């Protein structure tokens, strides 16, 4: 492989890894935001317990997603009515994996469970291939929407 091509590939890999250290919230928001791992680490965290696909109980620490959405000016609480109930979030991972959440699933005015953007599991940072951020939905029967290596949340209208 030629040195120039090798350097270009290395730079692409580095850029992807650096992008992995941030979370972008955009779309139908009042103010798009990009938060670094340090920004997220500084926010108030909450602990949740959930079972992985093998049934092993894990203890996660992270920021409730609703708090991150509020930073971007997403419609929440009493404003989440009428046409705003047609909004949804697409959570995207570095590898292209995407899942959808209805906006009310994150909002404590509607939901009794707390969905978090975890950055720690069992007292340690999330391991490579899972972190630095992971969506955790503690009461789901299958962790299919527990997105690993989250890079963005895009808010959209279903209409």
Which short descriptors sum up this protein?
159 residues; alpha+beta; Sulfite Oxidase, Chain A, domain 2; 10 strands; 19% helix; globular; OxRdtase_Mopterin-bd_dom
Task: Outline the structure in words.
- This protein is an alpha+beta fold.
- Helices cover 19% and strands 35% of the residues.
- It has one domain (22-157): Sulfite Oxidase, Chain A, domain 2, CATH 3.90.420.
- The chain has three helices and ten strands, in the order αββαββαββββββ.
- A five-stranded mixed beta sheet has the order 2-1-10-5-6. Strands 3, 4, 7, 8 and 9 form a five-stranded antiparallel beta sheet that branches.
- Strand 5 (87-93) and strand 6 form a beta hairpin.
Summarize the structure in short.
By secondary structure, this protein is an alpha+beta fold. The chain has one domain: Sulfite Oxidase, Chain A, domain 2 (Alpha-Beta Complex), CATH 3.90.420.10.
Helix proportion: 10-25%
Task: Write down the CATH topology.
Answer: Sulfite Oxidase, Chain A, domain 2
Structural class: alpha+beta
- What general outline do the C-alpha atoms trace? globular
Report low-confidence residues grouped into runs of 5 or more: 7-19
Using only C-alpha atoms, the radius of gyration works out to 17 Å
Q: Estimate the strand proportion.
A: 25-35%
The total beta strand count reads 10
Note the run of SSEs as H and E.
HEEHEEHEEEEEE
Q: How far apart, in Å, are the first and last alpha carbons? A: 49 Å
Number of helical stretches of at least 4 residues: 3
Number of separate domains? 1
On the 0 to 100 scale, the average pLDDT is: 90
Q: In this structure, how is the largest beta sheet organized?
A: 5 strands, mixed
CATH architecture: Alpha-Beta Complex
CATH homologous superfamily classification:
Oxidoreductase, molybdopterin-binding domain
Q: Regarding CATH, which class? A: Alpha Beta
Strand ordering within the main sheet: 2-1-10-5-6
């Amino acid at each position: 492989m030629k040195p120039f091509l090798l350097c270009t590939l290395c730079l692409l890999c580095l850029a992807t890894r650096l992008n992995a250290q941030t979370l972008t919230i955009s779309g139908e928001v009042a103010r798009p935001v990009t938060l670094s791992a340090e920004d997220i680490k500084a926010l108030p965290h909450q602990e949740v317990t959930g079972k992985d696909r093998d049934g092993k109980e894990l203890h996660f620490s992270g920021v409730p997603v609703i708090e991150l959405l509020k930073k971007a000016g997403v419609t929440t609480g009493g404003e989440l009515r009428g046409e705003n109930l047609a909004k949804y979030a697409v959570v995207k991972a570095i590898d292209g994996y995407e899942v959808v959440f209805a906006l009310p699933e994150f909002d404590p005015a509607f939901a009794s469970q707390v969905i978090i953007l975890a950055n720690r599991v069992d007292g340690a940072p999330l391991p490579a291939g899972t972190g630095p951020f992971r969506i955790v939905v503690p009461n789901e029967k299958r962790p299919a929407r527990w997105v690993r290596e989250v890079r963005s949340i895009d808010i959209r209208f279903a209409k």
